[in-house]
Design brief:
heterodimer; A: alpha+beta; 6-stranded mixed sheet; B: alpha+beta; 5-stranded mixed sheet; 3 helices; 32% helix; 19% strand
């Protein structure tokens, strides 16, 4: 089991993202790269993704997911964040052709053996999304699905839950693509994803 | 704005690109090589979005959202001088939506091009005069992603990082026809 202190998580984040490369100093060099893309931290992040896209356990996880949830699927967005992802999709019809959608997702970090299960809900009317909500603590009605996803991440990947109490801990100066550059990125941004809603 | 604001060469080039893209593209009716009163021409068109599938959706036993991505290098050159600057971005889109509807490549390309042009116009309309290129490029990516993900869930616009994607230069010579 890994050490789940704030200090240890910050250390992991700083291992994979360089510090001190604000976008205001971005300028492409002759090699076509930005300065932060020449750092060892960036190289480690890229290597972590190479490994994650070849995880043998991932296929097992997908197969098991599918056997439990026929509509469960891999919704990884490669290199767009720091996680692979599986989603379970639940739909309930509403009056006048509207639909209530629930997504339960498990995201697994490619940088550390940590996962997070969360849920989004929304109402779709005429293809327009309304009343979108994000739940880091999942509502009671999807607790069974969430428990199954958690169990898969723990048993198949050997992962443990991301400690939510550290999710919003800022890591000053860290260069995390996709995070709001006007703010310090958080541990959640760095180790999992900057954009949790908008599941597909 | 582009012709009156000359804080630095890069800023001027970017502003001129933005101005030309914004003024020459209206929603889905963008056209390449279109000539207007502005001598600068540059509207990115669907054929630049040469997506490749980086997560296949080829196993019907295990459904995947799938993933396609392309890396665009929007390169700006100033006439016959050596001045040039660039904004690089990767566009990633699912192959399928949540209701298992496939997003056809042609549709994805059309939306990606149309919204890129619209995002550029939006960023310009609210940017401060003299804003740095790096900030405009970043704001463009943020705005562009918001537009794309409103249409296609899960769409992302990031730095170019994916293995296996095609890098497509979008060249603009100010005062000349755009590169093919």
């Amino acid at each position: 089991m890994m050490d789940l202190t704030e200090a240890s998580l910050v250390k992991i984040a700083r291992h994979f993202y360089p510090t001190g490369y604000p976008i205001t100093s971005d300028e492409y060099g002759e090699d076509g790269l930005l300065p932060h893309q020449r750092t060892p931290e960036y190289a480690r992040w890229m290597e972590a993704w190479d490994k994650a896209m070849a995880w043998p356990e991932w296929k097992t996880l997908r197969l098991e997911l599918h056997s439990v949830f026929p509509r469960g699927r891999d919704c990884t967005q490669p290199r767009m964040s720091a996680c692979r992802r599986c989603c379970v999709y639940l739909e309930r019809p509403l009056p006048h052709g509207a639909r209530h959608l629930t997504y339960v997702a498990v995201i697994t970090s490619v940088l550390a053996p940590l996962y997070l299960v969360y849920c989004t809900t929304e109402v779709v009317v005429d293809k327009q999304r309304q009343e979108s909500h994000l739940f880091l603590e999942v509502p009671d009605e999807v607790k069974p699905q969430a428990a199954t996803l958690s169990a898969l991440a723990e048993r198949v990947l050997g992962y443990q839950p991301f400690p939510l109490q550290f999710a919003n801990v800022p890591v000053p100066g860290l260069r995390v693509d996709g995070a709001d550059w006007r703010k310090d990125p958080t541990l959640l941004d760095a180790l999992l994803d900057t954009t949790l809603d908008d599941l597909f | 704005m582009g012709q009156n604001m000359i804080p630095t060469r890069h800023q001027q080039l970017w502003a001129v690109l933005l101005l030309s893209l914004g003024s020459m593209c209206g929603g889905m009716s963008c056209a390449s090589g279109q000539q207007g009163p502005n001598p600068v021409v540059g509207v990115i068109t669907p054929e630049y979005f040469r997506f490749r599938e980086v997560v296949l959706d080829d196993d019907l036993q295990i459904p995947a959202g799938g993933w396609r991505a392309v890396c665009i290098h929007a390169l700006l050159k100033h006439g016959s001088s050596d001045a040039k600057t660039v904004c690089k971005f990767e566009v990633g889109l699912p192959l399928r939506t949540e209701d298992d509807r496939e997003i056809p490549l042609g549709e994805a390309q059309l939306a990606a091009a149309s919204m890129a042009n619209r995002a550029v116009r939006d960023v310009l309309s609210r940017s401060h005069p003299g804003e740095m290129l790096a900030i405009l490029c970043k704001d463009f990516k943020t705005t562009y992603q918001a537009m794309l993900s409103a249409k296609y869930r899960g769409a992302r616009v990031r730095e170019c990082r994916s293995a296996g994607t095609e890098t497509v230069p979008f060249g603009i010579k100010l005062g000349e026809e755009p590169a093919p």
